[in-house]
Amino acid sequence: MDPELSPDQKLFEAAAKDFLDKEYPLDRIRRMDAGAGFDRDWWRRGAELGWTAMLVPEELGGGSVSGEGVRDLALLAEVLGAGVAPGPLLATNTVLAGLVAAHGTGPDHSAAIESLVSGEAVATWAVYEPGRQWAPLEPGLTARPAEGGFRLDGVKDRVEAAGDADLFLVTAATPQGTAQFLVPAATPGVTVERQWSLDLARHHGAVRFDGVRVDEAAMVGRPGAGEVVERQTQVALVIQCAEVCGGLDRVFEMTTQWARDRYTFGRPIASYQALKHRFADMRTWLEACHATTAAAASAVQEGSAGAAEPVSTAKSYVGDRSLAILQDCVQIHGGIGLTWEHDLHLYLRRATSNRSLYGTPQDHRRRLADLASL
Amino acid sequence: MTDGTTESVESFRLRARAWLAANMPRAEESAPAPGDELEAWHRARELQRKLYEGGFAGICYPAEYGGLGLTPAHQRAFTEEADGYEMPLLLNIPTLSICLPTILDMGSEEHKREHIGAVLRGEEVLVQFLSEPSGGSDLAGLLTRAELDGDTWILNGAKTWSSSAYAGDYALCLARTDPTVPKHHGLTMFLMPTKGEGITMNRVAMVDGTAEFCEEFFDNVRLPASAVVGEVNGGWAVATRQLYHERTAMGGGSPYVSGRGFAPSRKLPTPIDVARAAGRAGDPEVRELIGEWLATSTVSGQTAARVTRAIAGGHLPPAAASLMRLMGAEAMRLERDVAMRVAGACAAVAAGDEPGVLGEAGIGYLMRQGSSLGGGSVEMSRNIVSERLLGMPREYAADRGVPFNQVRRGRA
Ligand SMILES: Cc1cc2nc3c(=O)[nH]c(=O)nc-3n(C[C@H](O)[C@H](O)[C@H](O)COP(=O)(O)OP(=O)(O)OC[C@H]3O[C@@H](n4cnc5c(N)ncnc54)[C@H](O)[C@@H]3O)c2cc1C
Predict the structure, then answer these.
(1) Are residues B384 and B287 part of one domain?
(2) What is the secondary structure of A237-283 as a DSSP string?
(3) pTM (2 decimals)?
(4) Residue B32 has what pLDDT?
(5) What residues have CB less than 8 Å from B10, skipping those under 6 apart?
(6) Which part of the chain is the Acyl-CoA oxidase/dehydrogenase middle domain (chain B) (predicted)?
(7) Mean pLDDT of chain B
(8) Distance (Å, rounded) from C-alpha B175 to C-alpha B164?
(9) Are the C-beta atoms of B288 and B341 separated by less than 8 Å?
(10) Where in chain A is the domain with CATH 2.40.110.10?
(11) What CATH number does the domain containing B153 carry?
């Protein structure tokens, strides 16, 4: 819904939309079976359209339509969010953000970057731990130095696309501080267990690391990985918020149309002021969600240093406001809004899931208070 | 600026930074008088004069009338640089961001020559005479009459809620000039001196103890034909422009201001001040509330910037100004709520016999709805968004197409 897109961005947007509508219409999402992941070939073709290249500099095989990768990624996330798309857009791009941010500071991961950009490989960030809230820099999983490398012990959970991932970016505690490791899923000692997910199109798993041996070259950047973790978090949050904005546009449009078509007492429900005023509020919040998401994307585009505040602002606002809008849209639909056959719940699932992951709005509000030096 | 080429925003910004540092007082070093005292207005006029002499007044007003003729981007750069300095914020609303833009859009050449420069030099304050005791939302249903006597207009009636009118020199006053036609077609806008003969002005005490609002009674006030802004009986078109500027200003999106924000008639503590004063800064629940308020006010500013850009670029109709107005009001309500909640029990009873910071949070809460009524109520804005932006059916209006003198009126 950004009115100021360049012609190239519009083409990029349209191509993504066509591809998604053709391959994964909402009906297919609704029927997505609890066991199945996404179609790997579909993802490879998405990668060919540039979905994994945006955060990667050209010398590492990437590139983006406008040259402003984070903004283009947000644009794509809006399109995919409008279709509640499956696939590891957030997972893979978040890992790429970390690999690129750490590039040149530690072991070389350009081969992994290349395989992710091409869509041959899928990666995901293993950051949450069982029973714990968002605390990316306080991992309980340990990486102890052992025989020229490290030995990883611990459990990560709520790992997106865990069952499909070829590579895990694992945030771990080392004697030198928090560090991250890129660990192939096939490494001995790594096991994945499926976890129930609210979002029908997105699956999560718990990943257990039992005495997993990796060599030095698996480390991403250096210990004391705060800035890289921050970058990953910011990119994940921008993707989340943009996805939700795309979904909200679709649902709001669907609901205003419904209000014009649905009649009670001989007039459209859109003619009742009690509902018109709620639509006006929702329209305002929708604009506000877009405004703050765009501001966050621009700030992350410029660099991570000053971006924490606008990013937490966006998550704090969009995280809760999106659900207020969606639930009111359910209410205005009446009973049909609660049925499995209706599309509303697909959006509500995605938005609820995005609200709770990578820090809840409440977590980000406390962070804003920290940033305001209260 | 060199002949005909516009100065770049960056160069303008740097020049503004240096000038501000050399010429304007820092905000923390000055203790401004409350906005409802005349002393504060003298100060504001003085600061505006300084801006004018320094070449930084009226950034988006055309150069031919005394402004700088630059773009909103220049304005934003200046506003950012001016943060932390004492600015003539009292002049922002309604003088600089509502009344003067309306004169620029709709006034005669003579009005523009006479008033734009005078305001920018700090010599004139403008106010709005719109609302009446009988109602503000149904503005076009107002009762104040203006009748022609030869070529002089004679005004009779009453206005109310006119912000800072006691400090004003001129007012935009909407009056009925033809009661025999449907309400919108019989109105005319006048630009009138506020202290002329026949005008009685009183100050209205508000719940927070301020007296910023005024009420006026007109008893055969005489105005020349040249006082008409726009066309005779074309006052609704002028008022529509004025309300557009008002909603833009209330949402924080006006490009016509001197410095950021507007001056409250009573300086209130922010929720952060309240948390510190209450010794509750370490309470996670308090931090969460404050984070929510911080996020919402930031989003309100981001929304105003986005909507203003979209209206300027033709992507949204002017009616979309109501979006930023609604968002601005929401952020203000939340600010008052959070301050009151953080103050806890101390919002109601102070330690001593002065309200103190925490008591101020309680007082601020009493005026919570101010930002949801001023500039037209949020209910009116919601009607505008749903009807004009979303195209939903219009409300039934019993007075549509009915000559005004046959419309039923209330008792209140
Ligand atoms: C801070 C502040 C500054 C102001 N400054 C000025 C000023 O400088 N000059 C000036 O002229 N006025 C000013 N006003 C007045 C303001 O414009 C009016 O208060 C406002 O327009 C509402 O009018 P009213 O108070 O007469 O309420 P009414 O119009 O009587 O409305 C009463 C209530 O009914 C609601 N309502 C009315 N009609 C409808 C409808 N059709 N659908 C749904 N709800 C409806 C309203 O929203 C409101 O909640 C100011 C007010 C404030 C609070």
Answers:
(1) yes
(2) HHHHHHHHHHHHHHHHHHHHHHHHH-EETTEEGGG-HHHHHHHHHHH
(3) 0.91
(4) 67
(5) B77
(6) 130-221
(7) 94
(8) 20
(9) no
(10) 123-220
(11) 2.40.110.10
Q: Domain holding B313: CATH number?
A: 1.20.140.10
Residue of minimum CA distance from atom 9 in ligand 1 = B162
pLDDT digit string (tens) for A235-248? 999 999 999 999 99
Contacts of A374 in chain B (CB under 8 A): 272, 275-276, 281, 287, 290
In this prediction, residue B338 carries a pLDDT of: 97
* pLDDT for the residue numbered B262: 82
Asked whether A318 and A278 are in contact (CB, 8 A), the reply is no
Please report the ipTM that was assigned to this predicted complex: 0.90
CATH superfamily for domain A123-220 = Butyryl-CoA Dehydrogenase, subunit A, domain 2 (2.40.110.10)
CATH number at residue B34: 1.10.540.10
Residues B149 and B55 in one domain: no
Quote the number of domains for chain B. 3
Which numeric CATH code is attached to A226-371?
Answer: 1.20.140.10
Task: Of A102, A113, A177, A167, give the one whose Cα is nearest residue A139.
Answer: A177
**Location of each CATH 1.20.140.10 domain in chain A:** 226-371
Residues B393 and A266 sit within 8 Å (Cβ to Cβ): no
Instruction: Enumerate chain A positions whose Cβ falls within 8 A of a Cβ in B.
Output: 3-4, 256, 259-260, 267-268, 270-271, 273, 276-277, 279-281, 283-284, 287-288, 290-292, 294-295, 309-310, 312-313, 316-317, 361-362, 364-370, 372, 374
Q: Do B148 and B116 share a structural domain?
A: no
Q: Are the beta carbons of A173 and A180 closer than 8 angstroms?
A: no
What's the confidence (pLDDT) of residue B4? 61
CB contact under 8 A, A287 and B327: yes
Least confident interval from A74-78, B15-19, B51-55, B397-401: B397-401
Which domain, by its residues, includes B353? 268-390
Radius of gyration for chain A, computed over Cα atoms and rounded to the nearest angstrom: 21
Res B323: pLDDT: 96
CATH class of A7-118: mainly alpha
Asked whether the predicted pLDDT for residue A1 surpasses 90, the reply is: no
* Ligand 1, atom 50, residue with closest C-alpha: B374
Q: Which tens digits make up the pLDDT trace of A272-305?
A: 999 999 999 999 999 999 999 999 999 999 987 8
At B382, the pLDDT band (50, 70, 90 cuts) reads very high
Higher pLDDT among residues B262 and A159, named by residue: A159
Q: CB A288 to CB B327 under 8 A? A: yes
Contact A351, A247 (CB under 8 A): yes
Query: Do residues B152 and B165 share a domain?
Result: yes
- Same domain, residue pair B148 and B201: yes
